[in-house]
Design a protein that fits this description.
globular; alpha+beta; 13 strands; five-stranded mixed beta sheet; three-stranded mixed beta sheet
Length: 327
């Protein structure tokens, strides 16, 4: 994929003009979450194969002591299960630096570093691939496109600084208590791997708090993500009257279209208990999201309830753009 020409310049242009390839991420050292003198694994989801890698870590001099994620990494909801930053940014955190530094690259384990939450759940450290090194990292097989230019500079619409390289093996990684990476992938290029994902913790926090609010109201908190991250080239296919916005927040990793689906039938549940599923149920969901924003102003963003059409049932758009937007 060759990106279209743009008038953008500087860092934003460099971040936008790149290609992806069909190779997996460069190997990064993994420090497994273990605890106690016998190195008993505490993290949920750590496989026997990963447990065996403790010996590998020891053989290259890597630390295998227990690492517990601090409360600031768990978000306002307490339910975040990943920290996502470029390697340089992660290395600035004294807690995370030991997980990424040291060891011999040719002997390094290719899984992402793991920690635990205070209650023993798995917590994953995800080093993002910097946009400027995307081509060199071999991501040319996955079409992404180019982030659109803004009429006037706006930091909220600056192309992301990095992305998650998602593979068939790591797509099931939990990014929060309720959601996995695969829930937010763009709905195209199904057979192209690795895939690219841009995802912001603020969105995950907002969705988890929305789930908690629904449960507080006596409803199911099981949210289904109908649409998460959209690559610019995918988003552009639906731009137009009544369609997707040219500068959709979905391209920036902090927006999702969601509905409550406790019964797993792929459709919105009857939230207002009137015996039918309509936009009125989406309004119940949006009302719960309004309460979350009122309680957590730092997560303010866009909210909109949509009715059903021939392609989908009713749903609610939720984003964390940083200012209130309603439509």
């Amino acid at each position: 994929m060759r990106p279209a020409r743009s008038s953008k310049s500087g860092i934003a242009e460099k971040a936008a003009k790149w290609c992806f390839g069909g190779a997996v991420l460069a190997a990064l050292v993994v420090a497994l979450t273990v605890a106690g003198p016998d190195h008993v694994l505490k993290a949920q989801g750590v496989t026997p194969a990963e447990a065996a890698q403790v010996d590998v870590l020891q053989s290259v001099g890597m630390p295998v002591e227990a690492q517990v994620a601090s409360s600031d990494l768990l978000g306002l909801s307490g339910r975040l299960r990943v920290v996502m930053e470029t390697p340089d940014a992660l290395l600035q955190n004294p807690m995370l630096k030991p997980l990424l530094a040291g060891g011999e690259p040719e002997k390094a384990v290719t899984s992402w570093p793991k920690m635990t939450t205070p209650d023993g759940e798995a917590f994953t450290v995800v080093p993002l691939v910097p946009f400027e090194s995307a081509k060199d990292s071999g991501f040319s097989g996955y079409r992404v496109g180019m982030w659109p230019a803004m009429p006037t500079p706006n930091p909220r619409y600056t192309p992301p600084s990095g992305f998650i390289g998602v593979t068939p093996e790591n797509q099931g990684t939990y990014v929060s208590t309720s959601f996995k990476m695969q829930d937010f992938l763009t709905h195209d290029q199904g057979n192209v791997w690795p895939k690219v994902l841009v995802l912001r913790p603020a969105l995950l926090d907002k969705l988890e708090l929305l789930s908690q609010e629904l449960e507080h109201e006596g409803l199911s908190g099981k949210l289904h993500v109908m649409s998460g991250f959209r690559t610019p080239q995918y988003n552009a296919q639906g731009v137009g009257k009544g369609g997707r916005a040219t500068h959709s927040r979905h391209m920036y990793g902090d927006a999702a279209d969601v509905f409550v689906d406790a019964d797993g039938n792929g459709m919105m549940d009857d939230l207002n208990k009137d015996g039918k599923v309509t936009v009125a149920d989406a309004l119940v969901l949006r009302s719960a999201a309004e309460k979350v924003e009122a309680q957590y102003p730092s997560l303010v963003g866009g909210l909109a309830a949509y009715p059903a059409n021939s392609a989908h049932g009713p749903f609610v758009h939720v984003d964390a753009r940083g200012f209130k937007a309603r439509w």
